[in-house]
Amino acid sequence: MTNDLFFDTDCLSAFLWINDTSILHELYGGQIVLPEPVYQELSIPNIPHLKQRADAMISNEDISVKAIEAGTEEYELYTTLVRGKKGQKSIGRGEAGGIALAKTYNGILASNNYKDIAPYIEMYNLKHIDTGEILAEALEKELITESEGNNIWQKMLAKKRKLPANTFSEYLENRKKDV
Fold this sequence. Notes:
Layout: E1 5-7, H1 9-17, H2 22-28, E2 32-35, H3 36-41, H4 48-59, E3 63-66, H5 73-83, H6 93-104, E4 108-110, H7 114-123, E5 127-129, H8 131-140, H9 146-158, H10 168-178
Helix pairs in contact: 5-6
């Protein structure tokens, strides 16, 4: 199994929007892979700072970008997911890229968009993390305190990032109940 984490746009952009990628660097530097469609999604003309911040992480070798080449196993899955199979709805290019690469390379999918990806996580038996899990791991490794996690969480919410709880503390409490 690879240790690579295949990030979707929403999960990476939660950190890019608040201009705090230090946790990603500390936890996963060199293991973060952006599917090419995710990198393209960051190239929004009226929000150039997202791509600039991702480019800085690429320069630091925290992130690499992986193309999804025609004729490959991941390409076949990617196109199936984007188009939608019978009985399944199509999903976005970023989610599809992350799923296709995580499945093909037996990596970990990093995405906050659980509603769209849940059937595929189950179908392909994918390992999955989200922003909350990343912050929880940072807390466990003493990279942040719970208070700092709450501060980061609030900054993400202020930037209209979709998170599963109102506070990081609430996320941690709900996580304990799920275990």
